[in-house]
Design brief:
Structural class of chain A: mainly beta
Largest interface: A-B, 31 and 27 residues
Oligomer: heterodimer
Number of strands of chain B: 10
Shape of chain B: globular
Order of helices and strands of chain B: EEEEEEEEEE
Largest sheet of chain B: 6 strands, mixed
Distance between the termini of chain A: 38 Å
Radius of gyration of chain B: 13 Å
Helix content of chain A: under 10%
Chain lengths: 112, 115
């Protein structure tokens, strides 16, 4: 049972435009969400996170939105740059646990 | 070191052989995780270590898989009698605290190919 789903395996965006990556989850107990970025032959690196008490968190060009009623979060990258081309994973966890549940990833390609 | 170190970076083995993968976490990080990513799939939780507590082995796919950690340092993941379905990238991650929300720091992974 996939508790965290990223239904788009890939996305192509023109440089300078907005990239929107989506993530859905099924477990309403999740109360903390993270996005990781992964380049080829490297491990995932932390990008941005959001607590369930918030609906938005912004860090520079990256903003994460959380819609708890829809059990949906999204990562917005504005403006997109070629260096943003990578695989993006969303992950979720809930209080009292330590097991991060990851989605299958979305491969973003930013075209110059 | 400055980051999580994994070795080897690549391992090719024959079906039925045993393999051992190594992870050096960030110094001072008490929590250590092993994840696996098979082709086209997400990161699959394998095992979790926290200090001297009993590890959570609930993600290990079979009894051919085992892992050890010495205190709060090096961990080894051993796969016995490897099968082709074991082919994957094995990722190790560490974090500073068991509290949720403490982000994970990943190594570059070991690409395991079982022929």
């Amino acid at each position: 049972d996939q508790q965290v789903k990223q239904n788009s395996p890939s996305l192509s965006v023109q440089e300078g435009r907005i990239s929107i990556l989506n993530c859905d989850y099924t477990n309403s107990m999740f109360d903390y969400f993270l996005w990781y970025k992964k380049y080829p032959a490297e491990g995932p690196t932390f990008l941005i996170s959001i607590s369930s008490i918030k609906d938005k968190n912004e860090d520079g060009r990256f903003t994460v939105f959380l819609n708890k009623s829809a059990k949906h979060l999204s990562l917005h990258i504005v403006p997109s740059q070629p260096g943003d081309s990578a695989v993006y994973f969303c992950a979720a966890i809930y209080s009292g646990t330590y097991k991060y549940i990851f989605g299958t990833g979305t491969r973003l390609k930013v075209l110059a | 070191g400055a980051g999580v170190s994994q070795s080897p970076s690549n391992k090719v083995t024959e079906k039925g052989k045993d393999v051992e993968l190594r992870c050096d976490p960030i110094s001072g990080h008490t929590a250590l995780y092993w994840y696996r990513q098979r082709l086209g799939q997400g990161l699959e939780f394998l095992i979790y270590f926290q200090g001297n507590s009993a590890p959570d082995k609930s993600g290990l796919p079979s009894d051919r898989f085992s892992a050890e950690r010495t205190g709060e340092s090096v961990s080894t993941l051993t796969i016995q009698r490897t099968q082709q379905e074991d082919s994957a990238v094995y990722l190790c991650a560490s974090s500073a605290d068991v509290d949720h929300g403490e982000k994970l720091f990943f190594g570059s992974g070991t690409q395991l190919s079982v022929l």
